[in-house]
Amino acid sequence: MFDATCPLVTKVHIEVARYSRDGRECILIGHEGHPEVEGTMGQYDASNGGAIYLVEDEEDVAALQVRNPEKLAFVTQTTLSMDDTSRVIDALRSRFPAIGGPRKDDICYATQNRQDAVKQLADECDVVLVVGSPNSSNSNRLRELAERMGTPAYLIDGAEDMQ
User: Is 124 annotated as catalytic?
Assistant: First the structure.
């Protein structure tokens, strides 16, 4: 058997398991229903009295009710937008000053490189076509990023999607 899990995802899983063992509640920044999020949430063992919470945006942070804000940590889905994730982390740190988190961002460097490339392309192009699956978090974030930059963007899964 060979475990092909991305090393960054494994790192996040290890962090969640450690927070669970330490009795810390954990906040996962991610997209509900995403396979990575489901797998990460499954790494938390609530038998130590803690809990894991999922937040997607600053509004979720504002509404979040935790048991002990002094024993709290966060992790992130590895395929998120750096810009969006930074805003959520800032909201968490503002609301829960004692919150712990990874020493280094858990966003995949390849994901960040693609996002940086789309930012540059969006400034130079009339339209951005992202080739990828509609259920891919990475592909959807790239399309959204181009649109946020003011450039029309479309997600193309195959040649049949071209018009």
Answer: no
Report the predicted TM-score, pTM, of the whole model to 2 decimal places.
0.79
Give 84-141 pLDDT, tens digit per residue.
788 999 999 999 999 999 876 666 777 888 888 999 989 999 999 999 888 887 888 8
List of residues 6+ apart from 57 with CB closer than 8 A: 84, 87, 88
User: What domains sit in the chain, N to C, each tagged with a CATH number?
Assistant: 7-95 (3.40.1010.20), 109-161 (3.40.1010.20)
Annotated active-site residue in 36, 38, 59, 147: 36
Residues 6+ apart with CB under 8 A from 148: none
Higher pLDDT, 70 or 79: 70
Amino acid, single-letter form, for residue 103: R
H or E segment and range at residue 48:
none
